[in-house]
Structure formats: C-alpha cells, structure tokens
Design brief:
It is a single chain. This protein is an alpha/beta fold. It has one domain: 3-Layer(aba) Sandwich (Rossmann fold), CATH 3.40.50.620. Helix content is 44%, strand content 19%. It is built from five helices and five strands, in the order E-H-E-H-E-H-E-H-H-E. The chain has helices at 14-31, 56-74, 92-103, 117-122, 125-132; strands at 5-8, 35-41, 83-89, 107-111, 136-140. It has a five-stranded parallel beta sheet, with helices on both faces. Strand 1, helix 1 (14-31) and strand 2 form a beta-alpha-beta unit. Helix 3 (92-103) crosses helix 5 (125-132).
C-alpha cells in the first residue's frame, strides 16, 4: 500500500485540514505508514520588517510548532510515535513538494475547498500540488 504519507496542514483553516488528517490517519493505520504533517508559513514582505520586533520570526515559528504538536495530540491514532511535524517557510506547494521528497512519501493527503469561480481564476495550492506531485495525491473535500 503506502509507505510514507505527507499531509499539508493549514493552521488557519483547521476544519479543512482535519478532514484530510482523519483520512490520512486511517490510511496510516491500515498501511502502518508514518504520517508527516507539514505547515508552511508565508514569507513576510521585507517592507513590513521594520514594523515587527526582532524576535518575530522565532516567535511565529515557536507558535506554529506548538500548534502542530497540539494538532497531533488531538488525532485519534493508536500510535502517535509515527507522526512527525514540520514548519517550513516559503511558497506552499514548493515547500510541500520538498517535504514529500525529503520524506520519500508515496502519498499526499490534502484538504481542499469545493471548487468555486475564484479557484478557477486564481488557482489553489491543492491544484498546484496535484499537478506537480511526484506521487499519488488524495484531495479531501468537505461533504456537500
């Protein structure tokens, strides 16, 4: 089946992420595969840097890492020792695909909104990940 599963998580939209996490947790348990959660922080434009404290990046990183640990604690998995987390910075699809390569994942489970006109015109991270992924991708959407 699968040997390594990556789940991109959006900490600002946990409802969508939790749907994907539930599916990924089930697949992980069935395949006895490790689960790798990744959150990608956006890069703050340089023009804003003079308005934030010097410790801003470290504080944001620590906050995101804590929130990821809390998310893992909330999962209904028998063996949480197979769950890892990563907080990266950059563009979402580039960092998710880099995580997939590093973890040698053969499945990405990603949550997504239902398609709307905005996603057709602007695209989405899920679309780009599906298009460029080196492995299988399961897109999980909320029920209609």
């Amino acid at each position: 089946m699968f040997t390594s599963i990556v789940v991109p998580v959006d900490l600002s939209e946990l409802e969508i992420s939790k749907l994907a996490l539930d599916r990924a947790a089930t697949l992980s348990a069935v395949a006895n595969a490790p689960l790798h959660l990744v959150y990608v922080r956006s890069i703050l434009p340089i023009t804003f840097m003079e308005y934030v404290p010097p410790s801003f990046d470290e504080e944001q990183q620590a906050d995101c890492e804590k929130r990821m640990k809390d998310l893992v604690a909330s999962l209904t998995l028998a063996d949480k020792s197979k769950v890892t987390t990563a907080v990266r910075m950059g563009s979402v699809y580039n960092e998710v695909l880099a995580e997939v390569e590093e973890k040698k994942a053969d499945l990405i489970v990603i949550g997504s909104h239902r398609p709307a006109m905005a996603t057709y015109l602007l695209g989405s991270n899920a679309t780009t990940i599906v298009r460029h992924a080196p492995c299988s991708v399961l897109v999980v959407r909320p029920p209609a």
